[in-house]
Amino acid sequence: MSTKKILLAGTMLAMIGLVWLGVVYWMSFFWVSTEVTQGIAQRIFYVHVPAAWTSFLAFGLAALFSGMYLWLRDERLDRAAVSAAEGGMVFATIMLTTGPLWGKIAWGTYWTWEPRLTLTLLLWFIFLGYFLVRSSTENPEKGKRHAAVVAIVGALDIPFIHLSVIWFRSLHPAPVVIKPEGPTLPRGHAHYTLNELRSFHCSFLGIVPPPVFT
Asked: Where do the structural domains in the chain lie, given as residue ranges?
């Protein structure tokens, strides 16, 4: 398949994901009951949580591709790592934007330095550092290698983000989907959350493949 066709397919996949996201989010206003305490603002959940999961997937892939690049020295793997990290930064920024908006309503404050929020912000800064290391190193090859190590270190933060609300007392809600005893999220809410997650993943996958094959 030619580079042009790959880029076109990636763009179409990303656009499908965005349209899917809009349709499912619009439907949530009519087909899902409104949460009693937070009201209509609770629907931020349907963007915040899928954005968080997608950013973790993206950063995890960036670390995986980076590790493979350090081993194989294949430039396509480095490009894939960069692309995944870029997608991760986009979705992490969405997460860090919607989270405080939701937090203001749920907790009465936009931000608090509790474990999960602090670790998530740290993850964002680590991958910001990933790009700074690449751009500020005089030797491009050395910059790629150093950035790959940064990506791997950054991904190690992800499990701690998930476990932080279990290990420590936290304002942030405990997991309601990924739990040992199974999800406690109401079925309708879970359905829309998973559909939003699929739409985010579709958009992300539309971004990542082109650099791998070009």
From this structure: 3-213
Distance (Å, rounded) from C-alpha 147 to C-alpha 130?
5
**Torsional class of 108: left (φ above 0), alpha (ψ -120 to 50), beta (otherwise):** left
Gap between the Cα atoms of 66 and 81, Å rounded: 6
Summarised one tens digit per residue, pLDDT across range 125-165 is 999 999 999 999 889 999 999 999 999 999 999 999 988 87
Q: Which residue has the tokens 């892939």?
A: 61
Q: Quote the CA–CA distance of 129 and 21 in Å, as a whole number.
A: 30
* pTM of structure: 0.85
In a 10 Å sphere around its CB, with 0-12 CB exposed, 13-18 middle and 19+ buried, how is residue 138 labelled?
A: exposed
Question: Which token pair is 4?
Answer: 């042009």
* Alpha-helical segments (H) within the chain: 3-31, 45-72, 75-107, 115-136, 140-155, 157-167, 187-207, 209-213
Q: Give, rounded to a whole angstrom, the gap between the first and last alpha carbons of the chain.
A: 10
Closest alpha carbon to 62 in 142, 2, 140, 123? 123
Counting every residue written for the chain, the total comes to: 214
What's the Cα-to-Cα distance from 131 to each of 26, 64, 137, rounded to whole Å? 35, 16, 10
Q: Report the candidate in 67, 89, 76, 48 with the shortest Cα–Cα distance to residue 152.
A: 67
Cα separation of 214 and 206, whole Å? 14
Place of tokens 């009951």: 33
Classify residue 39 as left (phi > 0), alpha (psi -120 to 50) or beta: left
